[in-house]
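Running this now, will post back.
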Amino acid sequence: MAIRSRSPKPDEWAAKTNHTHIIQDTFVQNFLAKCDFPPAAIDLIDSFSEFTHTLSNDMKNPIKHLLAVDGGYTIVEVKKQFPSSQIAFFQFGAVLFLVKDLEDLSEKPFIFPEDMNKLHDLQRFKLALPIRNVKSKSQDSLKNSIRKVIYDFFMEKRDGHSFMETLEWLIFEKYKDEPKDEYVLGSDPNGDGGSIRLVRNDIKNDFTFEMAGETIYLTDVFRLHEAIDEDQGAAGILGYVTRLIEQLILVHFIKSIFQLQPSLLNEFLFIADGPLSFSGQTANMHKPMRELTNYLQSKRNLFLVGIEKSGAFVDHAQQICLPNDDKTLLKKGDFILLSNQYIYKYIVPGNPETMRYGSTAYYGGKVIFHSADSQILVLTVPVPNSRVVINPKLDQYKNINEIILNMQKLRCAMYDDAIIPVALANKLVSLANHPSKVLLEKFAKAQINSKN
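Update: finished.
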């Protein structure tokens, strides 16, 4: 592999001809010959009947407010003489605006800056995490440094409330008349033992538990400590942290509305950037999220959707919505509920007889929508349980028609198949390599030098 030089000597680049050894290797050739790939679109033509539906555009739209969350991170090197010392900077944004403002804007021949200002009321949330060869002065390891930073981030008061209060509300199901008494944490962050029980009545005012003389943070339920390596670092958790916090921010706003004026849930559409799922060590968080969405949809109401912008499902959506041999498999105005059999046959490799897609990470079901104006969207909508994907029925995807109707209204021409709330949130919080990464690197180095 290539290695960067720390001196005036040139960088050590990889050789230009070593690929020939891979190309000529019999083992590699045999492996590639045995690989299966997704089928061509024309082979799917018999799979578009049972789970395909047409959007009804004449329904009354209950949604008046939209709230979308997006986030991102960048990694910087903090010591020139020690480039393996790294910190990750995160920024998350929640964008709130009125559907009426969007509709009024679409009728104007010209859009002025003051019109755009109506479209976003942004809240930003910032976080910095040590990633490799860095630790907090108050902690004895990288793992404990990360645990403490995430705990502090969740403890921060924002408008009088913290994300930690929201996490407790979610984990112990305090939205119910009878909350849960305990939560089972799969692994002890302070030892090598197995699962431990977090008893709600034992939680301290600072949202910690005392066990065997060690402190357990409520945020340890994310189990990120399992993926941190003291030598190799914690770069592997960055995507997990991003998806996790984006969705916890949505829960934070849902909780506020539920407690202050629950009837407003009938008028809000909450939009997550990415599928309604948790990944890696945080995957178990899908269980309390499914419990929350099921409760709200049965006792109150909830309009929640995740939208994907890349990946295998987006690739497949393009394949079935764009003309192929003069045929468009998913016609404009139609949407398809993706079944377990369909997913493993046409999108991702797997055996549908022994595997159930998303059962350990998702709390929603996948939907592909081809809008009347040629927009192609991959959505995730809450479903009551993971068995729904085996034989998806329209009535199991509550509020799906209203959700898709609003997705169609939110088209954004800035990017391929983008919607305005997510595009705005991304534009306002994303961290570019230039100049954001360079400036954050200078900022981190200056802060470190000023403290030493």
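The chain has a mean pLDDT of 83. More later if anyone needs it.
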